[in-house]
Design brief:
- This protein has 2 domains: 78 residues, 434 Repressor (Amino-terminal Domain) (Orthogonal Bundle); 184 residues, Endonuclease, Chain A.
- It contains 12 helices and 6 strands.
- A 6-stranded mixed sheet has the order 3-2-1-4-5-6, sandwiched between helices.
Length: 278
């Protein structure tokens, strides 16, 4: 039987596989026996152990359960997140942790529907485009899509956060993935606007110079009412916690909301665009 020797220091993925193998062998289990406990095929387990296939969140949590380490400090889920975050912009993983616990989320986006509001089809087109450009590896695509799903699930937790979203009109008019993808995405935005814990505005092009924000920004209000903002450059994400820096951004966001279309007018604009979508 051929046995691939792993080099845990070579990559986080190989470190995960090596740990999975050693944990399995310490219990005297074959790959088939571990696969049965995990609910996966032995082929899948072999691929993860040898680093040919990246682990998923579900796989990692199953491993924690099977090996009895769920809820501890050094879990397989922690290792999975290190692998996952390796393809993300520096600073973004930390932001996602706060986002999932925020009491209020205020979001402004330009040019593209933000991840929290993307349909699976829209998100897939964005990720596939990144793969084609060589920005991410193919195996990282599934993890990015999983992260989108994970972030969206936090919006329907109990109690759910209040979510205020202002989209630049360019987000609606930039075609992504063809008419069918855009039609479904526009319909999803209307459904988002109808939720009891959400508010959706469009900042129309004719706001012109009255638009106080020109770059995407997010402001989080945590359960203790502390504030933080998040913004990205081409190289990294920046999380700001100092109130002297965040409050002016919050003020600009309120000014943006005041000048944007009402939610009723926003929904009307989206419906007009849908009528023009074949």
């Amino acid at each position: 039987m051929n046995r691939k020797e792993l080099t845990p220091d070579h990559s986080p993925r190989e470190a995960f596989g090596a740990r999975l193998r050693s944990s399995r062998e310490a219990r005297g289990w074959t790959q088939e026996e571990l696969a049965e406990r995990l609910g996966y095929s032995s082929t899948h387990v072999s691929a993860v152990e040898t680093g040919r296939k990246p682990p998923t969140l579900r796989f990692s949590r199953s491993a924690d359960r099977v090996f009895g380490i769920a809820g501890t400090v050094d879990t397989f889920e922690r290792q999975f997140r290190e692998i996952q975050h390796g393809s993300l912009l520096e600073g973004f993983p930390e932001y996602v942790g706060y986002e999932g616990r925020a009491a209020e989320i205020r979001l402004y986006e330009v040019g593209v529907i933000p991840g929290l509001l993307q349909t699976p089809e829209y998100a897939s087109v964005i990720v596939e485009s990144a793969v084609k450009r060589g920005a991410i590896a193919p195996e990282q695509a599934d993890e990015r899509l999983s992260l989108v799903t994970e972030r969206q699930a936090a919006l329907v937790r109990t109690p759910p956060p209040l979510v205020f979203v202002v989209l630049d009109e360019s987000c609606l008019r930039r075609p992504v993935g063809g008419p069918a993808v855009m039609e479904a995405q526009l319909e999803s935005l209307i459904e988002f606007a109808e939720l009891p814990n959400t508010v959706l505005h469009i900042a129309p092009f004719d706001m012109g110079e009255r638009r106080p924000l020109s770059l995407p920004i997010t402001v989080l209000t945590l359960s203790d009412r502390s504030l933080m903002s998040y913004a990205e450059s081409s190289q990294r994400g920046h999380l700001e916690r100092e109130s002297t820096s965040v409050l002016p951004i919050l003020t600009a966001y309120h000014q943006l909301q005041a000048g944007a279309l009402s939610q009723a007018a926003t929904v009307a604009m989206i419906n007009e665009l849908r009528k023009g979508t074949p």
